[in-house]
Amino acid sequence: MKASARGRAAGKVILLGEHAVVYGRPALAAGLPLWLEAEVVAGEGPARFESDRHADDPRAARLIAEAAAAVGLEPRGLVVRVRSDVPAGVGVGSSAALAVAVLRALAAAAGRRLARDEELEVATRLESIFHGHPSGIDPAAAALGGCFRFVRGTPPVVAPVRPVVPLPLVIAFGARPRSTGAAVMGLRARWEADRARHEALFDAVAATVEDGARAVEAGDLAALGRAFDRNQTLLETIGVSAPEVEALAARARAAGALGAKLTGGGAGGAVGARAPDPERLAGALGADGTRTIVAHVGAAAEEAA
Ligand code: PMV
């Protein structure tokens, strides 16, 4: 193994279609210009994360062991250091970014570069350490960046969606971290109890995704905003929203957003909003201390690979 090796991956935003994507419907996602970098060095003792919020998390130790096995490295002695500006627990894909970056660092340490489909397959398996039924959309965004339509599968169907005009998006982060795993499992129980109702709701989500993808490609930002609002209403009906994100979305609309919705697992977390003047909207939402970023979707994230 090399003495030290690095890998990096991007955060992501799900524009439309989260949760329904777990049940085979399409979703629209994009890499964000937020980065997580993992560095692996040779040390002693059991594999571990050093000096980071993952140090005491047993799931993170499992992540190193399984990623090492996937690239043919002995996990013992591996020490992983992480630097990240991807916030955790708010729906912008921090666990997938961690999985992809660690996998890339370990592959580099083993002198390998994984092919795209193998990388996505292993990273999706690694993400399941953090939540039970990952669709694979988060690792795809972390690994590939750009803006794309995604349908789960082995390998998944990933089709680039190219914005004809810059697509600025305001992302506002809720104060309370939440668990994607809990939201996904809660929905699974409700789906088991009434599959027909949920399948119909997922079909309605899929229609908003297709409308949204067309809107992105046509540069019709008002139509994209409407797709955001319809998707948010469906997410509320499906039971994965929360008063905190609904209040944030309502504030965004009142401050001029053309559409606003939760992004990612939900039940807290982040809100994505489309607005004619994103900097002004970000300023208005940030007035009470809410953290915001303005991301130009489909641009910077091409660097992810
Ligand atoms: O909360 P995040 O960023 O991990 O997004 C999860 C997206 C879901 O559709 C809810 C789950 C999945 O694996 O697709």
The number of helical runs is 9
Overall mean pLDDT? 90
Ligand list = (3R)-3-hydroxy-3-methyl-5-(phosphonooxy)pentanoic acid
Share of residues in helices: 40-55%
**Which geometry do the CA atoms define?**
globular
- CATH topology category name of the largest domain: Ribosomal Protein S5, domain 2
Specify the CATH class of the largest domain. Alpha Beta
Uncertain residue segments: 300-305
The biggest beta sheet reads: 6 strands, mixed
Number of domains: 2
Order of helices and strands: EEEHEHHHEEEHHHHEEHE
Radius of gyration, whole Å:
19 Å
Give the termini distance in whole angstroms. Answer: 22 Å
Which CATH architecture of the largest domain is right?
A: 2-Layer Sandwich
Strand percentage: 15-25%
Strand tally, please?
10
Structural class: alpha+beta
Description:
It is built from 9 helices and 10 strands. The chain is α+β, with helices and mostly antiparallel strands and 305 residues long. It folds into 2 domains: 4-160, Ribosomal Protein S5, domain 2 (2-Layer Sandwich), CATH 3.30.230; 167-297, Alpha-Beta Plaits (2-Layer Sandwich), CATH 3.30.70. β8 and β9 (270-274) form a beta hairpin. The two termini are 22 Å apart. The structure holds (3R)-3-hydroxy-3-methyl-5-(phosphonooxy)pentanoic acid. (3R)-3-hydroxy-3-methyl-5-(phosphonooxy)pentanoic acid binds at residues 14, 18-19, 21-22, 91-93, 134-135, 137-138, 180, 184, 264-265.
